[in-house]
Design a protein that fits this description.
312 residues, single chain, 17 strands, 7-stranded parallel beta sheet
Length: 312
């Protein structure tokens, strides 16, 4: 089996490539850069076949897929800077990548007969209420430009392919890129007081764990909509931060213990600052994974522990 992975310079695409290689599955990476070094945070990793591909260029997408002839495409490439996407001068580019780019991939998959897996987000919903979102829910109501364009990407996949995987994730962290854990570790070291939002609720997703699930899925024909985050219950960003600092202090980093750092829970309104409106309810129902025979991701606290071991 040959799998093309888009967005390999990002957190998830990077891990998916390496997981495919570990399993002996032929993997080909793509991204917008002319070259990909195969380096994450200064650490060299397996360098696999790579092709430059601008997903917003339909001609280029068609050409690359016709040349590679993959059996499947795991489409990780996306614009993910949520606040920056709100800038008027960036919105066309965001839509070109997340919506038009995904449509180009979907049409090329339809043309070549390749399976397609599209990585989406909880942001396609309005984030209201407290009930976990069912993966087959069609009550789309994005709150911001990022969410709207990711929904348009979902729609393009569903309209151009009979069978597909759409996997929604949330609160992503991985080695190759910026994320909440890296931010908390950095600012927690030099501050004695922090305020963290406590009224947005969801569950983190570790790309290393997610990549294993995606590789499990792509070799099957169990198509459909799925939600995939780590297990361990639903938490707030405040809960997430407190656990990060607890584990850092447990490792001997005194700057993060309760005597040196005070973390105060605040509402989204009190915190302010964000350009993009965030969903309060990012709870994703993952039960469909088990029903369809897939192994759920490990507990999020365990994922944080393994990630910090790697990061530090």
């Amino acid at each position: 089996m040959k799998v093309l992975v888009t967005g390999v310079a990002g957190q998830l695409g990077h891990d998916v490539m390496n997981e495919l290689d570990k399993r002996g599955i032929e993997a080909v990476g793509s991204d917008i850069a002319d070259e990909y070094s195969g380096i994450a945070d200064g650490s060299p990793v397996t360098v696999l076949p790579y092709h430059k591909m601008d997903i917003s260029d339909k001609t280029e997408v068609d050409s690359v897929l016709n040349m590679i002839r993959p059996d499947a495409v795991i489409h990780c490439a996306a614009w993910t800077a949520v606040d920056l996407a709100e800038d008027e001068d960036k919105q066309d580019k965001v839509r070109l990548i997340n919506a038009s780019g995904s449509e180009n991939i979907a049409k090329a998959c339809a043309m070549t007969g390749a399976k397609m897996m599209y990585i989406s987000t909880d942001y396609v919903f309005d984030g209201q209420g407290e009930e976990p979102w069912d993966p087959d829910c069609k009550d789309y109501a994005p709150l911001n430009v990022y969410g709207q364009t990711k929904y348009e990407g979902e729609k393009a996949v569903a309209e151009n392919l009979k069978d597909f995987f759409i996997v929604r994730i949330a609160w992503v962290f991985g080695k190759n890129g910026n994320n909440f854990i890296k931010t908390m570790v950095k600012i927690g070291e030099n501050h004695d007081q922090l305020k963290v939002v406590n009224d947005q609720v969801g569950t983190p997703t570790y790309t290393l764990d997610l990549s294993k699930l995606l590789c499990d899925m792509i070799v099957t024909d169990k198509y459909g909509y799925y939600h995939a985050t780590n297990e361990g219950g639903y938490i707030s960003w405040y809960d997430f931060a407190v656990e990060i600092f607890r584990q850092m202090a447990e490792r001997g980093y005194e700057a993060y213990d309760e005597d040196h750092l005070t973390v105060t829970p605040v509402t989204t309104e009190e915190y302010g600052l964000s350009k993009a409106k965030r969903p309060y309810n990012s709870r994703l129902d993952r039960s469909k994974l088990v029903r369809n025979g897939f192994k759920p991701l490990p507990d999020w606290k365990d994922a944080v522990s393994r990630y910090l071991d790697e990061l530090l």
